[in-house]
Design goal:
This protein is 26% helix and 27% strand. The chain is an alpha+beta fold and 228 residues long. The strands form two sheets. A seven-stranded antiparallel β-sheet has the order 4-5-10-6-7-8-9. It has a three-stranded antiparallel β-sheet with strand order 1-3-2, covered by helices on one side.
């Protein structure tokens, strides 16, 4: 038992040291700097950093391939200038379900907008699938959206969520359609009586989605701005 103790102690010390550096190098807000007085150790860390940089470059190229059809510069969160030149890319299924609770800064991919577009904290990019809006949005197009838009939605193309929606393109309870509302006056205020979500398509099988019940539960997730 005594003979095994030094080996066990070395293994324990090795684990503690690794855990310590792992914590230091993942908790830094602006970076973590490691300097070794021993030349061999210093060169080891330098070579490791160079290899990691090459791996990250390869990984980014592979990630770009996953954003097929998005012909704009794609960077990681660490490389982005958030909302100065870059806006986040979201899976629209996730955005529709949890957008109000999402932490924008945690987006994995960021896209550099063209010079004529101004980035702002309420913008995001997502992909639209399906043919229900093909007169304005081609199937599979990457689009720019404004999150949680304020003001009137009348006549705008929006992403909406409601328990009564069953969208054949995206599935679940959200859809992208042209928004039209019919209002009535109650107690001196105009309130929605009926909301119609209209497809804009030349494809067969799509029809208006008409909502008349529990309209207060309808949630407008984002407003379509343009195809990228």
């Amino acid at each position: 038992m005594l003979k095994e103790q030094p080996e066990h102690a070395r293994a324990l010390a090795d684990q503690i040291i690794k855990n310590t550096y792992r914590t230091l190098m993942t908790r830094g807000q602006k970076g973590c700097y490691v300097y070794a007085t021993d030349s061999e150790t210093r060169e080891y860390f330098a070579a490791f950093a160079r290899s990691q940089g090459a791996t990250e470059h390869t990984d980014l190229a592979e990630e770009a391939e996953t954003l097929d059809g998005l012909h704009l510069p794609i960077v990681t969160r660490d490389q982005a200038a958030p909302f100065e030149r870059h806006v986040p890319v979201y899976d629209l299924n996730i955005a529709a379900g949890e957008f109000s609770e999402m932490q924008i800064a945690d987006a994995e991919h960021w896209v550099e907008l063209p010079d004529f577009m101004r980035a702002s904290p309420d913008l995001f990019v997502s992909r639209v699938v399906g043919e229900s809006m093909n007169r304005r949005i081609p199937n599979g197009a990457w689009c720019l959206f404004r999150a949680n838009p304020s003001g009137t939605r009348q006549g705008k193309v929006v992403v909406v969520q409601h328990r009564a929606i069953e969208d054949p393109d995206h599935g679940g309870s959200f859809t992208i359609k042209l928004y039209q509302s019919e209002k009535v006056e109650e107690y001196g205020e105009f309130v929605n009586q009926r909301i119609v979500l209209k497809p804009q398509t030349n494809a067969f099988g799509y029809k208006d989605i008409v909502l008349e019940d529990e309209l207060e539960d309808l949630k407008v997730i984002g407003e379509f701005l343009s195809v990228l």
